[in-house]
Amino acid sequence: MIVPLEHVIALSLALFSIGVLGVLFRRNAITIFMSIELMLNAVNLSLVGFSRYYDSVDGQVFVFLVMTLAAA
Question: pTM of this prediction?
C-alpha cells in the first residue's frame, strides 16, 4: 500500500506550520531549536515523498545532507 503524494505533502505542511509557530511564539532557546528541527524534518519528509513519486534517488541523498546539517 503506497501513501499518496498529497497526504505526504499535507503532513509535511502541517509539521512545518507547527515548527514555524513554535519559532515565532516561543522564547525558550531549546524550544526554538526543537521547532527548527521539526521544520527540517518536515522538509525531509517532503523530499522523500517527491523522491518516491518521481522514482529518483536525488531527494533521498539530499535528506542525508539535511540530517547532517541538523546534527551539527
Answer: 0.88
